[in-house]
Amino acid sequence: MKKRVVITGVGAVTPLGNDAFSTWENIKNGVSGIDTSTVIDKEKVDVTIAGEVKGFKPENYMDKKEAKRMGRFSQFAIAASKMALEDAGLTVGDNAHPERVGVWIGSGIGGIGDFEEQFTRFLTKGQRRVSPFTIPMFIPDMASGRVSMEIGAKGINNCSVTACASGSNSIGEAFRAIQNGYADVIVSGGTESAITEMTIAGFSNMTALSKNPDPKKACRPFDKNRDGFVLGEGCGILILEELEHAKKRGARIYAEIAGYGATGDAYHITAPAPDGEGAQRAMKEALQDAGVAPEQVDYINAHGTSTPYNDLFETNAIKAVFKDHAYQLAVSSTKSMTGHLLGGAGGVEAVFSVLAIKDRIMPPTINYETPDENLDLDYVPNEAREKDLRVVLSNSLGFGGHNATLLFKKYEA
């Protein structure tokens, strides 16, 4: 018998707040965290808006000297993980055995900013000026590694690197590990900090980014006038816990994670498969895994990037899977407020999905002004809406054809 897995803690660092709950309040109120970038040189690139984390102080969560030896994406992960553990009332070595606590945090790009900085130093100043911490600063697995060291977790330690699906794949694989008895608790999610001129240049040259100069209006998922995504940064962490372990210590339970689907398009390096064929299968797998019928789903936190193809093909995928029920459920994209956090997106959006169940509210898609005749679902336009949510899906779709769907349920004993 597979074990049941519940969510007992949440943590986040985002463009809308340096903790999960202030972020969530802003999400519910339709606040945008996107603004003119403070780190991008407008003379070098043609896009200068981003969803930046503001006022983050790593020394509040870790040793200041050690913080300087790690990438910003790892700093985010440590902060969000410690907040999630505190929220869960869980201390490794106290009410959780170190060897039964794991860490599984995904990142799509890792410390690309640190790589760029050290490479420039190498070219201009030579080998001796390159930091000996360069490699562990930028390799994507180091967020998980650093978190495990900070909290004393000695169980499974892993990192899924699947582009924009990294966070969701990490949570899904952590879920399976607990289901199958390999851990009692796993700190899991996604983290990213990739707002650099080279990253902007690469995405811009493939015409993936919005060229709208208005930061607050640029990200407009499902709107007819959408023209690309806005790059964001941050981290979202869940505490996944085996149900009996959580009950034994009297933990508060936010929701149950009950299903996970992961598929590949085998189609194109950046474009999604026509009509979201891979996303269709990921959603179907998650439903089947959870034993949930399509008509039981209330809300989908969409990948919803604000690019022409993603929003169309994800909408078509939802209609293919849910048939008539697609017009009864609600779909929204919180990226309209955070920007696209790449490998961190699935983690942050999983946090939103869990809190949506807790607070019985569906977050909005802001900047939805002009309906697209080809996109005809309920996208929760501009204002959050109350609803008793029993089943919520969260989709993440990544370059390389990676598709991941997580299914969360209202917890019932």
Can you put this structure into words, describing what you see?
- The protein is an alpha/beta fold.
- The chain has helices spanning 20-28, 64-67, 72-88, 112-125, 134-138, 142-151, 166-179, 197-205, 243-248, 277-290, 308-322, 335-338, 345-359; strands spanning 5-13, 35-36, 49-50, 101-106, 157-158, 185-192, 234-242, 255-264, 299-301, 330-332, 361-362, 385-386, 391-398, 402-409.
- Strands 5-4-6-7-1-8-14-13-9-10 form a ten-stranded mixed β-sheet, with helices on both faces.
- Strand 9 (299-301), helix 11 and strand 10 form a beta-alpha-beta unit.
- Helix 3 (72-88) packs across helix 6, helix 7 (166-179) packs across helix 13 (345-359) and helix 10 (277-290) packs across helix 11 (308-322).
- The chain is globular, with a radius of gyration of 20 Å.
Taking the sheet with the most strands, its summary is:
10 strands, mixed
Strand fraction:
15-25%
Domains (count): 2
- The coarse overall form would be globular
Compute the average pLDDT.
98
Low-confidence stretches: none
Q: How many beta-strand runs?
A: 14
CATH-defined fold name of the largest domain: Peroxisomal Thiolase, Chain A, domain 1
CATH superfamily of the largest domain: Thiolase/Chalcone synthase
The count of helical stretches stands at 13
List keywords for this structure.
413 residues; alpha/beta; Peroxisomal Thiolase, Chain A, domain 1; 10-stranded mixed beta sheet; 33% helix; 18% strand
Write the SSE topology.
Blueprint: E1 5-13, H1 20-28, E2 35-36, E3 49-50, H2 64-67, H3 72-88, E4 101-106, H4 112-125, H5 134-138, H6 142-151, E5 157-158, H7 166-179, E6 185-192, H8 197-205, E7 234-242, H9 243-248, E8 255-264, H10 277-290, E9 299-301, H11 308-322, E10 330-332, H12 335-338, H13 345-359, E11 361-362, E12 385-386, E13 391-398, E14 402-409
Helix pairs in contact: 3-6, 7-13, 10-11
